Automatic annotation (TrEMBL):
Protein name according to UniProt: BTB/POZ and MATH domain-containing protein 3
The organism's taxonomic lineage, starting at the top: Eukaryota, Viridiplantae, Streptophyta, Embryophyta, Tracheophyta
Entry-linked InterPro entries: BACK_BPM_SPOP, BPM1-6, BPM_C, BTB/POZ_dom, MATH/TRAF_dom, SKP1/BTB/POZ_sf, TRAF-like
Family in the record: Belongs to the Tdpoz family.
Function: May act as a substrate-specific adapter of an E3 ubiquitin-protein ligase complex (CUL3-RBX1-BTB) which mediates the ubiquitination and subsequent proteasomal degradation of target proteins.
Alphabetical list of CDD domains matching this protein: BACK_AtBPM-like, BTB_POZ_BPM_plant, MATH
Native source organism of the sequence: Rhamnella rubrinervis
């Protein structure tokens, strides 16, 4: 009798990888002494920050979270501030030693194994943190408080699991150098067939390259009403240095820096350049440049720039940038300074309708804070750890959503 074995063409394998997507947020509390006396259970909330596809926020309770502690401790919690179900995460809270003696107070899950694995936050408003984070009397005489200011760093690691199949052999490829080659043509003026007069400056370029990148240039040079024989165009709506920056993007597909455009002695800031460049990108239908400008302006938002950027976003139809500006400006911690800025007066004059949207956003921010406040009262949504007053290595207790108390050693 012949034994037949199944034929195996090839061996395959796969692996499941669980890892964390990490992100950090720095929360500064100025005027700590004025925050005292708010009452137990009342908090100061950080701006929301995004890690692993979820929004998070830090809650600081100057008089503690629990009334029974009689304001002897400050409490610190991290909350899930966006919609989510059973979000698994690790956390690290650091109270910064502002004397820079290397004595930061750190409570971290990242450098030790957790008996029951990462914490699970069940829904929006779920919180993890420390009810007795620090004895208040000790905090107020420590180097953690300087000039009536506290600084906390928070790191969140959202657990993600992915599946990897077999990898094929690959040959590494060098990065594309097309942009460098095209820029050489621009810099050396090789084969240029069009001159732009912008103010007192002239810029040479190539019609075909411009037409390939911009629908406006394509229509101007090769459209039904275009003139292929034209060799000089006067530009009136764009500053010379902005037109140069736009040409550099067209040829290299990257956002130039200020020094590259204007030289090292320029007093123009990167934010101002990008604000003007966004308007030029909208004028010439350069969608990718417009998105790049939106992204950079979003990173540069502060109380001095947000009003001007918001006006630009409204005028040039940038909904994502507009939403970010409204969210920042409507934050109660920022609104007063924003309204005192020069850009806000320009916003009032150029886009008066945006003020009503700012008011609506302010109301929704306030409503969101109330919602989180109501959710946090549920015992099933809070993880809390009572630390010893000196923050030392003594035993601490934590509560989980099932009401089970677990005693841990740190």
């Amino acid at each position: 009798m012949v034994n037949f074995k199944p034929r195996v063409d090839s061996d395959t394998c796969s692996r499941s990888i669980s890892e964390t997507v990490n992100g950090s947020h720095r929360f500064m509390i100025k005027g700590y002494s004025l925050a005292k006396g708010m009452g137990a259970g009342r908090y100061i909330m950080s701006d929301t920050f995004t890690v692993g596809g979820y929004d998070w926020a830090i809650y600081f309770y100057p008089d503690g979270k629990n009334p029974e502690d009689s304001s002897m401790y400050v409490s610190v919690f991290i909350a899930l501030a966006s919609e989510g179900t059973d979000v698994r995460a690790l956390f690290e809270l650091t109270l910064v030693d502002q004397a820079k003696n290397g004595k930061d107070k750190v409570h971290s899950h990242f450098d030790r194994a957790l008996e029951s694995g990462p914490y699970t936050l069940k829904y929006r408003g779920s919180m993890w943190g420390y009810k007795r984070f620090f004895r208040r009397a000790a905090l107020e005489t420590s180097d953690y408080l300087k000039n009536d200011c506290l600084v906390m760093n928070c790191t969140v690691g959202v657990v993600r699991t992915r599946l990897e199949g077999p990898k094929q052999f690959t040959i590494p490829l060098p990065p594309s150098d097309m942009g460098r080659g095209l820029k050489d043509l621009l810099d050396l003026e090789v084969g240029c067939d069009i001159v732009f007069q912008v103010g007192d400056e002239n810029f040479k370029a190539h019609k075909l390259i411009l037409a390939a990148r911009s629908p406006v240039f394509r229509a101007q040079f090769f459209g039904l009403v275009g003139d292929t024989s034209v060799d000089k165009v006067e530009v009136k709506d764009v500053e010379p240095f902005i037109f140069k920056a736009m040409l550099l993007f067209i040829y290299t597909d990257r956002l130039p820096d200020v020094c590259e455009v204007m030289g090292s002695s320029s007093m123009c800031t990167f934010t101002v350049m990008v604000q003007h460049l966004l308007a030029a990108a909208d004028l010439y239908n350069l969608d990718r440049l417009k998105f790049l400008c939106e992204s950079k302006l979003c990173e540069e938002i502060n109380t001095d720039t947000v009003a001007t950027t918001l006006a630009l976003a409204e005028q040039h139809h940038c909904p994502q940038l507009k939403a970010m500006c409204l969210k920042f400006a409507a934050n109660p911690a920022n609104l007063g300074a924003v309204m005192q800025s020069e850009g806000f007066r320009h916003l009032e004059e150029s886009c008066p309708s945006i003020l009503s949207e700012l008011l609506k956003t302010f109301a929704s921010v306030d409503e969101n804070s109330i919602l989180l406040s109501s959710r946090k009262r549920s015992a099933s949504s809070v993880y809390a750890v009572d630390l010893p007053a000196d923050g030392g290595g003594a035993a601490a207790e934590s509560a989980n959503p099932n009401g089970r108390r677990v005693r841990r050693r740190y």
